[in-house]
Amino acid sequence: MFPADPNRHWYLLGAAAGYILLMFTNPVRGDLRDGFRCIRRHGSIWGVLLVFGFCYAAFNLGVEVFLHWALPIGKRPEFVWNRAWFLTPDMQMKVLADSWLPALESVAGIFNNIITTFPCSAAAAFLLLINWEGHHAVLRGALKRRFGFAGWLIYFAISLCAVAAIVKPFLYGPALPALNNAYPASGLLLLQVCLAIDWLSFLFEYLFGVYIQIYIILLAYVWVRGLSHTRTHLIDLAIRRSAFVLKWAAVVMFLSSILFNVPSILSTLPAFASLTGPFTGDYTVRLLMALFLIFFSTVQITLTFHSESLRRALGGHMRFVRSHGWLFGWFILIAGIHFFLLKCLDFSLVRGLGERTGVILLWRLLYPMLAALMAGWLLSAWVCLFKRCETGRVHDNWIRF
After folding, report:
1. 332-353 burial, b if ≥16 CB within 10 A, otherwise e?
2. What does 168-235 look like in DSSP terms, one character per residue?
């Protein structure tokens, strides 16, 4: 045990006072308030995020439990149900150092894809392929109208990625150990196939996440304008709008593939066995990717609302930053602070109590609710801020209901 700092209460009190002062004096406080009102009116905004986050956490927990029973002693994850709190000052500083990059990536997700869709993406891929409620036909028609003949190529590529998304969850369950036991000499080939499937599945997961984000953006806009809607019509509208966001999504998928997925696949080949450096998913690459998405923050939402070309969306983004950079910077700061505090709380609990203790297992299932509330709130606030700046009512309390 380490001696407690006698002034820690004053530090906490000062931090709480500073937080309250910041929240009540920042120039985007009206948009933050409206974002909270929006998720109160449309609980499905954060409810959708909660479903995806909870399924992801439950799946990972289920895989660990399965491996605990399937693997021999010494190779399986071990669960310790009770452990005393242990978080040294050095560990506390490590928590602070490790939290800022995930927080920055979460901020970037507000403008790109804040949702982890795996393993729900497998069910979504299956429903898409069987044309559930006609959404598959809507996607095919939207791609055909938007891209002509090239739309058919995009359609087949999405279908291929959907098949990979269906297969991927089984690679984390009984299928992969069974294949290793049945074909022990094909370990390298099996690894390469799994990496390729993971890459294709990632592309579908990302596209599905972008689609869900567009749906949430449109749902928040429905509240801003006070419009009536039905779930089916809004889903179809999000699919059609996704066709216009696809070019920007392709840019992000290309960069992600080049920086993360392709090097992992190439490193399994003898000619590229020594592939190392910045293309291995280290902090530098993650930081650059997050900064890139924040730098082009309004491209996705502009394409969603205005169905413009990518060139015009980029031009509109530069005009937005020049005209409203002050407000945008404040929103980035507020979002970053909240995500940073959330990540610090998560890392502190996990490292202080242990990754596989009973309390942390429960926390891993409760954390998605906090993350979904915060992400839904900030994403709704971003829609309110963007539309307020776009309409020129920067200094007005323009939402009256």
Report:
1. bebbbebbbebbbebbbbbbbb
2. HHHHTTTHHHHHHHH-GGGHHHHHHHHHHHHHHHHHHHHHHHHHHHHHHHHHHHHHHHT----HHHHH
How far apart, in whole angstroms, are the C-alpha atoms of residue 119 and residue 14?
42
Tell me the per-residue pLDDT of 162-201, one tens digit each, with 9 for 90 and over: 999 998 888 765 555 555 555 555 566 777 788 888 899 9
pLDDT in tens, 60-93: 888 888 777 777 777 777 777 777 777 888 888 8
CA dist 308 and 354 (Å) reads 49
Phi, psi of 357 (to 5 degrees): -85, 165
Q: Encode pLDDT of 334-357 as tens digits.
A: 999 999 999 999 999 988 888 888
**For residue 157, what is the DSSP state?**
H
Spell out the residues 6+ positions from residue 349 whose beta carbon is closer than 8 angstroms to its own.
359, 360, 363
The CA dihedral of 244, 246, 249, 251, to the nearest 10 degrees, is -100
Residue with tokens 């996704």: 242
Residues 6+ apart with CB under 8 A from 39: 45, 46, 373, 376, 377, 380
For the record, the structure tokens of 52 come out as: 């995806």
- Residues 344 and 103: their CA atoms lie apart, in Å, by 9
The maximal CA–CA distance of the chain, rounded, in angstroms, is 70
Distance separating alpha carbons of residues 290 and 211, to the nearest angstrom: 20
